[in-house]
Design a protein that fits this description.
Layout lengths: L28 H31 L5 H26 L9 H11 L2 H14 L6 E7 L4 E7 L9 E8 L6 H4 L3 H10 L3 H11 L6
Antiparallel strand pairs: 1-2, 1-3
The structure holds fe (ii) ion.
Family: Belongs to the iron/manganese superoxide dismutase family.
EC number: 1.15.1.1
Organism: Aerolutibacter ruishenii
Length: 210
């Protein structure tokens, strides 16, 4: 197979914040702007560079496969970072008041809405001082809604679509709360955009066609 032609590269682009960052409760504009620009924005730029290098490396016949895979590792991490940050910012900027449909769906999946919230909060607090993500996800294989722990951008559960995403990297809260991760989790809950969550639930969790 010829490798002399560079494959087309789709360049990732920054997605604007879907809310006014000066209007969040308990999360400062400075924190949100820094997170969006430096952490999310940094991953968007790094993913673009990685994709360019991958295209060039694939066209190079003398590229050792083990070095090619170093780029694929970066591709995996950066893709996870970009996608999860976009889900995260998209599910912020709301009232924090869950709608009846979302409450019902979570109560059915977890026994009660409070049981879902207790576990989600506990997982977030448990990641304090470290890094990772808490993801309420719909597993398209088991057809279950579950809360998933993720140690980094690459630890996504198999066959799972994110419904609600909480960033637990320290850059998400350190500027406002220092090491007090639980206070950040409280602030996150006050700003959940439940309309977005409800739309994701509706898109994901419809029963399969008979
Ligand atoms: Fe982040």
């Amino acid at each position: 197979m010829s490798t002399s032609t560079l494959a087309p590269v789709s360049t990732p682009t920054l997605k604007p914040l879907p809310f006014d960052p000066s209007k969040l409760k308990g999360l400062s504009e400075r924190l949100i702007r820094s997170h969006w620009e430096n952490n999310y924005g940094g991953s968007v730029k790094a993913l673009a560079v990685t994709k360019k290098h991958l295209a060039e490396a694939l066209a190079a016949p003398d590229m050792p496969p083990y070095l090619y895979n170093e780029l694929k590792r970066e591709h995996l991490l950066r893709t996870g970072s970009v996608v999860l940050h976009e889900y995260y910012f998209d599910n912020l900027g709301g009232s924090g008041q869950a709608d009846a449909g979302s409450r019902k769906a979570l109560a059915e999946a977890f026994g009660s809405f409070d049981a879902w919230e207790t576990e989600f909060r506990r997982m977030g607090t448990g990641l304090g001082g470290g890094s990772g993500w808490v993801v309420l996800g719909f597993n398209t294989h088991t057809r279950q809604l579950e809360n998933y722990w993720m140690a980094d951008h690459a630890h996504g559960p198999a066959a799972t679509l994110p419904i609600l995403v909480m960033d637990m990297y320290e850059h998400s809260y350190q500027m406002d709360y220092g090491a007090a991760a639980a206070k950040y989790v409280d602030a996150f809950f006050q700003n959940i955009q439940w309309e977005t969550v409800a739309q994701r639930l509706e898109a994901c969790c419809r029963p399969p066609a008979a």
